[in-house]
Amino acid sequence: MQITDITVFSYKARYNDGVYTIIRTDSTIEGWSETAPLGSDYLPSSFTGEIAALKEIGPKIIGLDPRSIASVNAVMDKVMLSGMAAKSVIDLACWDILGKSVDLPTHVLLGGCLTDEPPAFSVIGFGDLPTVVHKAQTELDKGVIAMQLKVGDDPLVDARRVKAIRKILPESMKVWADANASWNLDQALVFARALGQEITIPLEQPCRSLTDCAEVGRRTGLPIILDECVFTMADLMAAHAAGVTGVNIKLSRVGGLTKARILRDAAVGLEMMVNVDDTWGCALTTAQNLQLAASTRPDRLRAVDLFAEWTNPLISEIPRMQSNGRITPVSLPGNGFGSVNIEHLGEPLFQITA
Ligand SMILES: [Mg+2]
């Protein structure tokens, strides 16, 4: 089997530009995948940059066997060091093809279904206390069992908000705060002190650098999860050595499912907690995330991000969160979504052919 062409679509998702890529092969099998870089000041990645990367990488993988995914990755890495979201969307389409070619879901090919029903997490953003408490209560009523509380603004205001939300949630709720690398060390320490001793929640990427994040953990005793500063295995190893206890793995940040799987396996081997996530996305991102989450040990998987629960339009039929706050992966071959409704996508942005 050979890759014959790559077609790239774009559509306006609710908050961001999304990219859909389809890889066709010389068989009847097509691979679909999705990536959506967040704002350009979030990671060393941008929508226009990833489009440019796709145009540069695409011609080099035409003619390769999409089922030899490590070979495809090796070629992509030879073309450029960056372009992680571009590489991710190609890598994910190859996994979709591999699964369809052997009639197995991707999570089986990743080692099997270790977590039948991964817990989904809800994100509670910023807002005044009554608004965010109401939002958390609404999510709780829906059956959510894991919540990520956004922080990273004024540390005193953030601490008040986190305390108010934590108070209404049952002890069994998995709760953690995510600053998205927005604080410096000074602000992160103020937040932790204002939070007080009575609340213990893991803190995700309080500062930009590993050094500062690890220092927050050392001084406060709070478990630290890293997200925005883990790209490679070396980053993960350094994080673990510095006392970091968890990692949020975003497929498009690390270059795709092939690399995410290796990081996930290493993190689990190091007894770290794993969140499965992506920068943004919609239906296909949700299904893709679910493949990695389902193949992760349940005692090491904190939760998985289900973008389909809060973005639209959904371009394909995918599993949705159940009333127990969990999600069951489907047994469809490939990345676990039905046929893609191309009407949502409009005309392709461009196509790369042999
Ligand atoms: Mg995060």
TrEMBL record:
Molecular-function GO terms, alphabetical: metal ion binding
Domain Mandelate racemase/muconate lactonizing enzyme C-terminal residue range list: 130-223
SUPFAM superfamilies per record: Enolase C-terminal domain-like (SSF51604), Enolase N-terminal domain-like (SSF54826)
Keywords per UniProt: Metal-binding
Cofactors that this protein relies on: Mg(2+)
Any Gene Ontology biological process: amino acid catabolic process
Key word Metal-binding present: yes
Keyword Repeat: no
Family: Belongs to the mandelate racemase/muconate lactonizing enzyme family.
Protein name: Mandelate racemase/muconate lactonizing enzyme C-terminal domain-containing protein
